[in-house]
Amino acid sequence: MGESVYSNYPPPLNPAQKAFLVTTVKDWAVQNGLMVRPAPTFVAKESNPHGVLATNAPVTLFPSPFPRTCFEEATALQTVYNQLLIDVDDFISRLWNVHQSVKNEGYTQTLSLGLYRSDYMAHSPSDASTPSLKQVEFNTISSSFGGLSSLVASLHTELLDSPPGHPIAYPSHPLFESNVPPENTAVETLSAGLATAHKAYGLSKSTPSLPTCILFVVQENERNTFDQLALFKQLTKVHKLPVFRLLSSQILDHTSVQSSNPSRPLIYRPPHSPESQFEVSTVYLRCFYAPSDYNTERDWEARTQLERSAAIKCPTVLNQLAGCKVVQQVLAEDAGPNHLASFLDNTDPHVMARLRKTFAPQYDLSTNGRGRELALNPDTAANHVLKPQREGGGNNIYKTAIPEFLNSIPESEWKRWILMELITPPSEAKNVALRSDGEVLGGDVIGELGVYGTILWDQAGGKVLHNEQGGWLMRTKAKDVNEGGVATGFSSLDSILLF
Ligand code: ADP
Ligand code: MG
């Protein structure tokens, strides 16, 4: 039924229309900061020795249709999802050494900030008359693209009404009639979460007291700088807060924890003004989510320094762990102990049932388990994806490659993977994308909708001080590609038109 929306979308472009759209999108991207740093495979280091260049983020020329019911369900459930992970923290607390060592010493900060993104697809198997919402994963660390995705919604909204009142930028199509992408408040929502944490931190704990600041900790060679800067700008211009960016490799050089002070405030000395000192209220991590972010012992030491300090961490080590796929798998289990219910004991059973409906079946690979059986049989493996427990991107094994892969690694390592049933996105969806290297590619696509949420809670007692949903991200990838990340080069940023 819903499929018919996709069958004649997007309207075909003649060469002049396509050239006009591509030029318009390219210029709009530069003018408005819808940009990324170029990949070294596109612009070689020799051609850009001083790193001055940037290029458009990969972006679709058209917004993609998305079922209204699925969008509304995703936004309605976000604050419930935010809350779900509070207690999961405790549940997995034994898994992590860093946490253990800080715990032995005692945490000095009980507040915890989450900036989350829950990713979904509109599950549309051929035997279903209406699409349903299914979760791909839940991100608890470095949930990115809030900054750029709001820009894509603005770009497509402008194109839908260009020139104003007499739109002709796009060929006409029924879906375009008095329809624009829903409001996208990702920048406002994510920044408000950080600002709320900053405020909740309160006065300086140092003697003499220091001005407080927010610290973004970022990766070396980050290409997605402008996405981060959108939040940075909102915090400095609208919330009027001091914000700094620091490379994770420089944490130990420019921050310190005053050990003589039992509150353990985190002091930041900006490299460009070492005589200035700030006390960090909130650490926002846009790094430390993948093993490649921990190259040496020094990186672990740096993470531990942040963790044991008084700064509010976004996220804490525990909250990062709560986003691991193995936790999502356990929560999604409908046999055995009902973990979901035990973590949401004050939640309306009806809402809990709606949450559960968004889970696709997921399994561990324990001996004699159902997961193992499904993964090793090529016929059933074909309908599954195998994921490593942690986040990071680009590491999944798909479909019939699963049995072969498992047989190539020692059985003792199988416990590091979870098996998930494939979600079936609408089969006829199409779009056209302008890639960062200027290539324009059209064809069959798969869309993944992310919904942002923020939560600030007190781990001592679990009191929630702030819990908000706001903003979304649509990423669209070519259908013949399994992986989905924009940063990894597989997807393009997109927006949505609800139907
Ligand atoms: P990560 O982003 O940490 O690599 P994801 O769980 O998001 O891990 O998986 C990466 C990509 O694989 C997704 O963006 C999506 O395109 C695809 N994918 C993951 N799980 C499923 C699933 N159950 N059904 C269909 N596609 C999936
Ligand atoms: Mg993902």
Structure, described:
Substrate binds at residues 117, 141-144, 222-224, 228, 286-289, 475, 486-487. The protein is an alpha+beta fold. The protein has helices at 3-7, 15-32, 68-91, 97-105, 146-160, 186-201, 225-238, 251-254, 297-308, 317-322, 325-332, 339-343, 349-357, 370-376, 378-381, 401-408, and strands at 35-36, 55-56, 59-60, 64-66, 111-123, 132-139, 212-218, 243-247, 255-257, 266-268, 278-286, 312-314, 362-363, 384-388, 397-398, 417-421, 430-434, 440-458, 463-478, 491-494, 496-498. 33% of the residues lie in helices and 24% in strands. It has one domain (2-360, 423-498). The chain contains 16 helices and 21 strands. The mean pLDDT is 92. The strands form 5 sheets. Strands 3, 5, 6, 17, 18, 19 and 20 form a 7-stranded antiparallel beta sheet that branches. The longest helix is centred in the first third of the chain and has 24 residues, at 68-91. The site of adenosine-5'-diphosphate (ADP) has 19 residues, from β6 and β14.
What keyword list fits this structure?
single chain, 499 residues, alpha+beta, 7-stranded antiparallel sheet, 6-stranded mixed sheet, 24% strand, binds adenosine-5'-diphosphate, binds magnesium ion
Mean pLDDT: 92
Domain count: 1
**What gap, in angstroms, lies between the N and C termini?**
12 Å
Rg from Cα? 23 Å
* Beta strands, count: 21
What share of residues are in beta strands? 15-25%
The low-confidence parts are none
Structural class given helices, strands, pairing?
alpha+beta
Which sheet architecture does the biggest sheet show?
Answer: 7 strands, antiparallel
Anisotropy-based shape: globular
Helicity, as a percent range: 25-40%
Question: What count of helical segments does DSSP give?
Answer: 16
Question: Are any ligands bound, and if so which?
Answer: adenosine-5'-diphosphate, magnesium ion
